[in-house]
Amino acid sequence: MLSVPASAWLNSIGQLISVLILFVIVMLLALLTTRWIARYQQGQMHNQNLKIIETLKISANSYIQIIEAGDVYLVIAVSRDHVDKLAEFTKDQLHIDAANTAGQRIDMGESFHDILEKVRHHLPKK
């Protein structure tokens, strides 16, 4: 075997540990920055009069959305270059299933472990 001085081993291990520490610090900063931006954007959108009720993807760059604007609900088609109004409804004309729309929302407080358990629950057992 090759003889490697102990100081070279300690130097290599020290470099590895310092790179791992820097990696963890960068990942924590990325996590904190992402959470801060999400809270900031949520605060910006909280006091506005427009709300997206439902979105349906119809192609790679095209969506149909139902938007609440005050007491009026608008159905719009959104593509890369255009936004077109398709229809206008009142709240009485629109059927909103509260249980269905609640399931479509993303819970930002849900941990990765909870999501993983849900996926494992739905996988077929061998």
The number of distinct β-strands equals 4
The Rg value, from CA coordinates, equals 25 Å
Q: What profile does the largest beta sheet have?
A: 4 strands, antiparallel
- Label the overall shape: elongated
Share in β-strands:
25-35%
End-to-end separation in angstroms reads: 47 Å
Helix-residue proportion: 40-55%
In spatial order, strands of the major sheet run: 1-2-3-4
Task: Describe it.
A four-stranded antiparallel beta sheet has the order 1-2-3-4, with no helix packed on it. With 126 residues, the chain is an alpha+beta fold. It has helices at 6-46, 98-104, 112-122; strands at residues 50-59, 62-69, 72-78, 83-90. The radius of gyration is 25 Å and the shape is elongated. It is built from three helices and four strands. Residues 99-105 have low confidence and may be disordered.
